[in-house]
Write a structure and sequence with these properties.
mainly alpha
Length: 77
């Protein structure tokens, strides 16, 4: 995965011309980004089965579980 150190990269030019570039072209004030979360295969399978049994999406189940963990952490302070 990725480029190894010292490996030639023949797809990129030696110099890139940014003279026509526009700073902030894709910036949106206040935009939020949903980060991907990668689960272990066994954890993913377990949660998928529990979500399926409840008739909900895995994302909803994970959010519910994480909210409970946050409540427990806050209560223990």
């Amino acid at each position: 995965m990725g480029i190894q150190a010292g490996a030639p990269d023949d797809e990129l030019p030696a110099e890139i011309d940014f003279s026509q570039g526009v700073r902030g072209k894709f910036f949106a004030q206040g935009a939020t980004m949903n980060l991907p979360v990668y689960l272990d295969a066994k954890v993913r399978a377990y949660l998928a089965a529990r979500a399926r049994a409840r008739g909900i999406e895995v994302e909803q189940l994970v959010n519910e579980l994480l909210k409970k963990v946050i409540d427990l952490i806050e209560a223990a302070k």
